[in-house]
Design brief:
Blueprint (H helix, E strand, L loop, with lengths): L2 H14 L4 E7 L6 E8 L4 E5 L3 E9 L1 E6 L2 E6 L3 E4 L4 E5 L3 E9 L5
Antiparallel strand pairs: 1-2, 2-9, 3-8, 4-7, 4-9, 5-6, 5-8
Length: about 110
Amino acid sequence: MTLEQQATELLAQARSQRSGRAAHLVVGGPESTMTQTLVALRDGTVLGEHQNPGEATVLVLSGEVRLISGESRADGGRGELLEVPPEPHSVEALADSVFLLTAVKRSHTN
């Protein structure tokens, strides 16, 4: 299945969920340094404020999202890449949207 097909199916799931969202881990897992997760959000759905465990980007595959961190706002539409700030942030769907979240965890060296 292509990423585009997965995105279409995931968005259908998000539309049917009470929460308005659905996600699927594409690459990596709990023990991985890097993960890639498809996230689908129904229009108006907000992923509440949370911390970034390292470096991350959001690649918008469809729709439009707003990345919010403090007073800062960054909107992204299809094909746009947004850098996730290291501060607490949230994501709001300005339309039915699917994005690919790539996250690289910080290394914990002592």
